[in-house]
Request: fold
Amino acid sequence: MDGSSTSEHQLDAATRLVRIDENTVSGATSDAYWNLNGPFGGVVAAILLRSILEHPGKLWDPVALTVNFCAPLKPGVFRIRVREIRTNRSTQHWSLELTQDEQRCVATATAVFAQRPQTWRHLGASPPSAPPPESIARLKTSQLNWLEQYEFRFVRGAPQLQARPAEHSLETLSHFWVNDAPPRNVDFVSLAAFCDTAFARILHARGALVPLGTVSLTAYFHCSSADLASLGFSPLLGVADTRIFHNGFHDQSSELWSRDGQLLATAHQMTYFRDPRVN
Amino acid sequence: MDGSSTSEHQLDAATRLVRIDENTVSGATSDAYWNLNGPFGGVVAAILLRSILEHPGKLWDPVALTVNFCAPLKPGVFRIRVREIRTNRSTQHWSLELTQDEQRCVATATAVFAQRPQTWRHLGASPPSAPPPESIARLKTSQLNWLEQYEFRFVRGAPQLQARPAEHSLETLSHFWVNDAPPRNVDFVSLAAFCDTAFARILHARGALVPLGTVSLTAYFHCSSADLASLGFSPLLGVADTRIFHNGFHDQSSELWSRDGQLLATAHQMTYFRDPRVN
Reply:
């Protein structure tokens, strides 16, 4: 580690990978992104995406990424096996496995990269109207390390956690500004992490902390590396909501908008939860 | 093949698998579900899910399924390698590869199965209001084999294909009744296929047929085998819309509701398209 690493952003440090062979890299978990019971899922998604972005056979930009969280990562080293499954004229398919303790699989992922021609475009969705982030107080967070790596400024739907779950479902829709703290230029690594920054909707619905964890996260990217480079470290505007909480799982969908109204990514997930009132 | 197969539903025939060893099955493409350039993606998703449902190590019901379409299947036989990645107390993770010509990967998939306890429930989404399917004429379809295996009855947003794309985007939201033709009791195999029955939104937006294909499909299941068994062969009410068409890909999200207002599944996909006006 040389002197320049003292100014390395925590996200770069937390997603840093060492190549073992063409299709294997290793890394180590970062305390900075620690969540309740393992690393923040977004940083795991970022690590997995970065393992493809740095693969010597990688072509083009990511279009879709799915991460399945099989178990919490333990503190320490991990390995990722990166397999290029098939490369066509304009799409490239990848399959990944993240393991610890030699063989034990902790996460799987698949990804599609593509060469994206200029075509007809249409934006059907609209960004929510939101006051500028500078006008909103930063959400105070001190419970979990990973929260300290982001600045959240809620336009609506900030989590309001009480000691006991509410009787009826509270509002589940959130609009929020989010950026890395300290700021970092947006790229696909950070965008993958941002795709998991919307808090699990069960916290909003119940107004209380219950056991929870993402089991499967899918991110779709609607931008190029060049689009992201032009953003600098501008905050992103997030939208998150859910459709259903049912028998231990809820769905969740998010949008991530640039400050100038580009839809950069959409993300969907199924999240495990346990509700202390019932079981 | 014995005499009983004469009454076998086309979907059962099209998804029939023969076990080669514990983790390998084989099947064959079905003309009945042929699309423009390969089988209907929904039947491929159904085949992949069925390969787990019939695996001797399978526990519980599916919660999430992601299918990545690497290339069109060619007519003929295929193999699926089914790997149980990790089984925890209440979740089971799977990874699949569908190949043809011995080694060539045509599709990958991952799935999460889970034991779902009864917990707090909340349905935030609402089914669209829709007249009963019996009151709506069946969509006339004759161009593609797979369309003949379903009855589509559009409440709104039926595709209106013209010879030339529209100048501006047309409406992309659809509400539709869909059921197997002939009717078949709903189960996870058919539900996985239903998750891809919403037509690609580029057809709706452009009002014309352009080259297209799903690259990645994710389905989330919000019901149990028992919930599905109680439905019989009742039609499902589908909702489909998109957020963005951008440089050769568009996203798409769907809901599938039972006639009595249960949200059975949600599905998301990224779909490739090419627009003849630009390239």
In short: Helices of chain A lie at 10-14, 41-53, 188-194, 201-206, 225-229.
